[in-house]
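=== RUN LOG ===
request id: a7f3
mode: sequence -> structure
chains: 1
length: 295
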Amino acid sequence: MKIAAIGLLALSGMLWAAPDLNDTFNSLKTATEAKDAEKVKMLAPEAAKEAKEILSKSDNPADVMEFAKGAAEYSEYALSVVAAGSSDAQTTIDLTDLLLAQNNKSKHVDTAAAAYLAALAKQSPAKATAGAVKILAGRPDNEDALYWAASGNSANPGVSGGYAAKLVSVMRSKAKPEGVSEADWDKKKSAMLGAGYYLSGVAAGQQRSWVAADRDLKAAIPLISGNAAMLGPAYFFLGLSNYQLGKLTQDRARMQAGIKYTEQAAGVAGSMQGQAANNLAAMKREMAGPPAGRR
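=== RESULT ===
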């Protein structure tokens, strides 16, 4: 975003050709630098509207058109950075909603996405899930939105698993965004990959897709090792997956692996602990009995 260049162009050459946009742009730039959310909320849509009017007239000089394009993008930039930097959740929501209404495909949506979804989550998880779907309509590879869409649809494993698989695919290939440090990006990439594999694996386990559950949850474990809320369900479905796959193939070693994972699940406090303990007892009784063919 060539903000400085646009500013110079506006001050030196465009006053005569686009006086309204020139004034709005410079006021917006001042408001953005001052982090004045109320003024940005008012001026950014106005700048976008004035720029659109100029761009709709093909007989305008090339430099005027270039200025209008730059001003339109700057209006998106202004909404995103002020939304992301605001400490007021409603302000973040309002500014990001304006940006999404103005151009939901804008790359600047990515700047505001995490703050926007966190602000919506303070109101309700359902609003965060709906906000994620709204972002994905224009930015289908936004990792923050993919995470919220996957986790928010956990009651519907088919939907959750689809978003989670896309999150894994995106994070495996996505380059570090401009302006983000290597350390911060590595941390976020690991967290998002861990969440993606975990959510995909749990969704597969809920659908009794044992091979996929085993594969994805084994990939998740090293990345979620410090997260008990994820580890309990991960070990639970790893236990089920390996035990059931072992039964299907008459592989007692794999059934024993399932028992081991289930023991780990039973040792992690959380929503799956009681069911894991019940599964563990049932698995051990079954393993202690005679082989199926001798009953």
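=== NOTES ===
The CA atoms of residues 122 and 274 lie 30 Å apart.
The chain has 14 helices and no strands.
=== END ===
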